[in-house]
Amino acid sequence: MSDPGLTPDGPQPGSTKRTKIRRIPDRAVTSPTVRDEVLDAGLVAHVAVIDAGQPFVVPVAYARSGKEVLFHGSSASRLFKTLADGQPTCLSVTLLDGLVLARSAFESSMNYRSVMVIGSPRLLEGDEKAEALRRISDHLLPGRWSDIRPPSDQESKATIVLALSLDECSVKVRTGNPEDVPEDLVDPNFAQVWGGTVPLTESFGTAVPDEFSGGIQAPSYIETWTRS
Amino acid sequence: MSDPGLTPDGPQPGSTKRTKIRRIPDRAVTSPTVRDEVLDAGLVAHVAVIDAGQPFVVPVAYARSGKEVLFHGSSASRLFKTLADGQPTCLSVTLLDGLVLARSAFESSMNYRSVMVIGSPRLLEGDEKAEALRRISDHLLPGRWSDIRPPSDQESKATIVLALSLDECSVKVRTGNPEDVPEDLVDPNFAQVWGGTVPLTESFGTAVPDEFSGGIQAPSYIETWTRS
User: Fold this and answer.
1) Mean pLDDT rounded to a whole number for chain A
2) Which of chain A's residues have a Cβ under 8 Å away from the Cβ of B101?
């Protein structure tokens, strides 16, 4: 239980001293491909903002674009204005893949894939900002952007869009069965305890039209959209 | 898009100046019941730790116990040791309930329930620590704890267990249909665009036994465990 698969560790590809994974280093992944897959599969990121010495963790919609993560918030948000000033931040994406059921509490864990990115965000403006908004929409639901009204100037002004480089980040993955203490597997009290994994999956259900969509067919990009 | 339903806002029940929700205050919820339901339904929390001015956001297993949230990590973790010293932290739990598809990018959003708790954690020891470990296990999978070997003294020493009061926290909920700009609903370019929601659900799949579970029936608490 001391590592439920989910413990605070320093952040590895783009590993620096600050982001080197020290705890259970065999869970550290150095493949940028895995990093990108995790970022591309997540729906929400959690971003840190420090305000007067107090950290806040806020959920945000996001998208990966090459070697950056893009995310946005309201221009009226005190915390987001702080980020727009380039204050150091951390953005984490965690995908839970299942429960890992060992014969001991300590070895019980979770299967997961996680990415932690640290750095100072870059404020996007003009064409870069517009493109970032499109990418965030595409990340959530590919195909939607071309159907809907793009942001007006006023709406765009009400939005802060930030980019955070993936240069300094860590990736951790846990997969597979529990790693029980050998003694537990032969202990008469625990050898007959079922061990293994319970997979956890996130899925989209059937689209629900609002009152203005009567008679309009839901577009195929909604019906066919799945994530892994 | 400036509020994808998920933007950084100051944290409300137990609302203080620091945790008052200013942005889209109609999403703020003051019911402790809702707060507790969200905390009880989540599987993972994201916790902030500041180290040398740099915030980190780490995923943790957790459980609610009355008016506190309990979470744990490794005694070998630099970041967790910092938290054990009582440094201010923030713990957030976000449940994504679906995509909200409006006729404009700006009004497109997500349905979600989220809780953000801030404060300085309290280090648990002795019986409180042991009880907290049981509660975290029960949170992930009720019934499991009584089957498995509890932590040894050495395993317990390797684990830091913390409690964070719910006195200062905020709860935000977004439900229902998109709130489109009225003009978009009659605009010939967008009035025929399908709008509504796409629900998102997380579910456990069939338990997968490891190589030591041959012939052992998976316990009923696994097969019947669902979350909402």
Assistant:
1) 90
2) 141, 144, 207, 222
A115 Cβ contact list (under 8 Å, min separation 6): A35, A38, A39, A92, A93, A169, A170, A171
- State which H helix or E strand residue A36 sits in: helix A32-41
Residue ranges per structural domain of chain B: 17-223
The chain A residue lying nearest B52, using CA atoms, is: A18
A44 with B136: Cβ contact below 8 A: no
Q: pTM score, two decimals?
A: 0.91
At which residue do the structure tokens 């229902």 appear? B176
Rounded to a whole number, what is the distance in Å from the CA of B50 to chain A's nearest CA? 7
More confident residue, A167 or B4: A167
Q: Which of B200, B178, B179, B48 is nearest to B113 (CA)?
A: B200
Q: What ipTM goes with this model?
A: 0.90
What digits encode the pLDDT tens for the residues B141-160?
999 999 999 999 999 999 99
B193-217 mean pLDDT: 94
Contact A43/B96, CB-based, under 8 Å?
yes
Confidence of residue B9 (pLDDT cuts 50, 70, 90): very low
**A25-223: CATH class:** mainly beta
Residue found by looking up tokens 């605009």 in the block:
B187
Inter-chain contact A8–B204, Cβ cutoff 8 Å?
Answer: no
User: Is B103's Cβ below 8 Å from some Cβ in A?
Assistant: yes
CA B155 to chain CA centroid, Å, is 26
Assigned CATH topology for domain B17-223? Pnp Oxidase; Chain A (2.30.110)
pLDDT over threshold 80, residue B13: no
